[in-house]
Amino acid sequence: MSDLELSSSPDFSPPSIPAFDDDAADAARQRQAELTKPPGSLGRLEDLAVAIAGLTGDPRPTLADPTVVVAAADHGVVDRGVSAYPQAVTRAMVRNFAAGGAAVSAIDEVVGADTLVVDAGVDGPPVEVDECDGDDTVPVVDERIGSGTDDLSNGPAMSRNDAIASLEAGVRTARTRLSDAGIVALGEMGIGNTTVAAALTAALAGADPDRVTGRGTGVDEETRAHKVAVVERALSRNGLDGGDDGDGVGAGGDGDDADEPTDAVEVLRRVGGYEIGLLAGVALGCAADRTPVVVDGVVSGAAALVADAVAGDVRPYLLPSHVGSEPGHAVQLDALDLDPLFDHDFRLGEGSGAALALATYRAACRTHDRMATFTEAGIER
């Protein structure tokens, strides 16, 4: 995936992920040829239906009970002035998600998706439902790893145990709370997390920090340049800036961990976030259950990079949504071989683009399942 050589992670064992089911895909392909339409006339919808059949192992998948997972956490790097908003907005937005007042909440209503809100490490005490105002309040699931990460530009964002815990929390969420979902979309919230995503993308995709660091919450160009410098410092302090002292790729930085072996968990530990680790775990856990996962923007894209680096077998289960306006997102899509469905110039996050894409994936499967064949319709060809 990049020029960063990653060793194995013996202290984190991802769940076993089943291979693509060629027989189910072939059966779906054969059904497509028999449906009442000219061959190929539904274009990409036909390809999506066949691909999802192979992922789920069902020649006629339905993708019932779609769910958008919105994982939230805070980041110590926000103290570096990388965001236009204060850290307190993370907690306020979690309350907004729970009360159904966010953009992704509205989109979920339109596409018929449930919203699962997860506190992975918001600063302060756990977010309680009674903090949230709304007639249709959804619970906030407590999977807190800590009360926000440390400043990654000064050293590791978290301990290795916490990095592993975030991945395990995501797998646990997938295997328990998402076990009935036919398809899952990844969403997030965390002031400062586009800086974190840029650092992870630079490290895992082998990209220049300036290329993958965007305006995030809408900062000006001067602040974006400052963000780039913060990302560069984070990579250097954590031994992820591409230097090599002969003991292994990734060594050579000036941080305390510069000479340690580098694996995907270690990259997450050094420059990651709790919500990103949790979403990576969700992707792994869903894939283990043959549940497709829709990737949203640059932050959930960073989680997808982490999941792919931890267990490459997850990649077929990662489905694209949109191409976001954050520059790092295009780099992520390229690294993961994902071809986006649309470009609406989104940069909100929350899972908004992934939620919107759910309608396309469900339409692909519904037309594949519900359309009559020529024989059923009594039409001669």
From TrEMBL:
Domain of life: Archaea
GO terms, molecular function: nicotinate-nucleotide-dimethylbenzimidazole phosphoribosyltransferase activity
Alphabetically ordered keywords of this record: Cobalamin biosynthesis, Glycosyltransferase, Transferase
Listed InterPro entries: Nict_dMeBzImd_PRibTrfase (IPR003200), Nict_dMeBzImd_PRibTrfase_bact (IPR017846), Nict_dMeBzImd_PRibTrfase_N (IPR023195), Nict_dMeBzImd_PRibTrfase_sf (IPR036087)
Gene Ontology BP term (one): cobalamin biosynthetic process
Gene3D superfamilies recorded: 1.10.1610.10, 3.40.50.10210
Reaction it catalyzes: 5,6-dimethylbenzimidazole + nicotinate beta-D-ribonucleotide = alpha-ribazole 5'-phosphate + nicotinate + H(+)
Region (Disordered) location: 1-41, 237-261
Pathway assignment: Nucleoside biosynthesis; alpha-ribazole biosynthesis; alpha-ribazole from 5,6-dimethylbenzimidazole: step 1/2
The enzyme's E.C. designation: 2.4.2.21
Family of the protein in this entry: Belongs to the CobT family.
Stored PANTHER family: NICOTINATE-NUCLEOTIDE--DIMETHYLBENZIMIDAZOLE PHOSPHORIBOSYLTRANSFERASE
This protein's name: Nicotinate-nucleotide--dimethylbenzimidazole phosphoribosyltransferase
Species of provenance: Halorubrum glutamatedens
